[in-house]
Write a structure and sequence with these properties.
Elements (H helix, E strand, L loop, with lengths): L12 H8 L17 H19 L16 E4 L4 E4 L2 E3 L4 H22 L2 H6 L1 H17 L2 H9 L4 H27 L4 H9 L5 H21 L1 H7 L2 H4 L9 E5 L1 H4 L18 H4 L20 H12 L7 E5 H11 L8 H7 L9 H22 L4 E7 L6 E2 L5 E11 L6 E7 L5 E4 L3 E2 L5 E4 L4 E11 L8 E9 L5 E10 L4
Antiparallel strand pairs: 1-2, 2-3, 4-5, 6-8, 7-8, 8-13, 9-12, 9-14, 10-13, 11-12, 14-15
Helix pairs in contact: 2-5, 3-17, 5-7, 5-9, 7-9, 15-16
The chain binds iron/sulfur cluster (SF4) (2 copies).
Length: 500
Amino acid sequence: MGALQPPDQASPEAPAASAAAPLYARRQAVYPKVVRGRVRRAKWLILALCLLLYYAVPLIRWDRGPDMPSQAVLVDMQAGRFFLFWIEIWPQEVYYLTGLLVLGAVGLFAATSLFGRVWCGFTCPQTVWTDLFMLVERRIQGDRNARMRLDLKPWTREWVVKKALTHAVWLGIAAATGGAWIMYFNDALEMTPRFFTGQASLEVYFFFALFTATTYLLAGWAREQVCTYMCPWPRFQAAMLDENSLVVTYRAWRGEPRGKAKAADVGDCVDCRACVNVCPTGIDIRDGQQMECIGCGLCIDACDDVMTKLQRPRGLVAFETLANLAASEAAAGSLPPGSGRRACGMQARRAPRFLRPRTLVYAAALALVVAAMAGAWLLRQTTSLAVIRDRAPIFVRLSDGGIRNAYMLKLGDKTPGVEAYRLVLDAPAGLQLIVLDAEADPAGAPVLTTRPDGITQWRALVTAPAGLRLPESLPVTFRLVDAQGRVAVSTGSAFLGPKP
Ligand code: SF4
Ligand code: SF4
């Protein structure tokens, strides 16, 4: 039975096994080799787009009128506003941001289900900045072999100069990244001179330093360890993958048994390790699906290059579904190399099934969230009126016997213009409405004027003359009526008095 044993009766193999597998292992340095090909070109293009977006977006201007920020994308912490081109989100509308986050999450699930770890391999900031840092490293220290040689002889003059230069450029990129980050929270054109003359706030310098340091450490030092040990996504992305997801695979049915190109009875893999040498996480795709594989596809380019030189069809390593891999294996795996195995295996493949229950559920969820957000946006009111009735005292008895309630009115306007509204009290005849410090229209009704993109507060008094018989609690409604006579906003409240 598998009962627990006291320590003195434990199996003698147990300590030996734990000694054989230490819980800590030093990081093996990875020296990815430069690679050229279709995937690499696509990655350069995506990298350039992502970096351009990140660094340039705070510089885009957007005219919102006087006294309004003219930066297209801005999180204005002081005013509590998020500006996104023509869209302006107030704190109480944070559900739009929640909707955007849900969209991003479901979109990521859908993309993973269709194309595997396409996010990790192409657009994740960790991948993008690490790729950029590796480019700098390669330009200064040389390709894989040169870098390995350099690291074998530290503290030579060449080592010191090349390493210092590399780290200096990395720090420059990291500082630009931290600098761009704070511009999303401050007007870039106004903040830049203040930043360089030491007039920015402590928070600005703190977040600049924080993002500079994290960029430098994560992209320069931690690199693949972020994906392997720190990021939770590889742990649960397997739940979104199935046998019809496109992932980077090694077609073992075609490549094995691997061996020298001129040897007889071997598959297409010549065991050159080109795919391993270009891998940014240092793994061997021929070992099958691994959590460390970020799906960047660089091993595809490396192997295609080898196959082209050997005048063999490309695609020994390819974006492929596990279903096709199994079908090819079943059709051709038992055939000896060079006997039509390649053709037989490729014929067994089917077009990837993009429409599957899983992807349809993701698509439906995406459509639902988009529709909900669009509906909420179309029905969004740009004017709001909050009515807060005084609670202490709940009413005042006047010297002439009348009863008075006081209210705080908060008039919000989410547009850059100024609007004037007539305030009308929907209540039984006899109740009188006064708004302190408000102008009045020719009929004597109070006129409230909004503040562009802000809230104005007004004090309103509602009085019931002596002798008017009212219930203890009377529902009343405050209405804002525009110049065309349309009701813009209605807000309910109550008029309280003594027990009849
Ligand atoms: S195995 Fe290939 S796809 Fe996976 S991380 Fe390495 S190079 Fe990228
Ligand atoms: S690059 Fe291609 S041929 Fe070379 S080891 Fe990798 S899979 Fe085999």
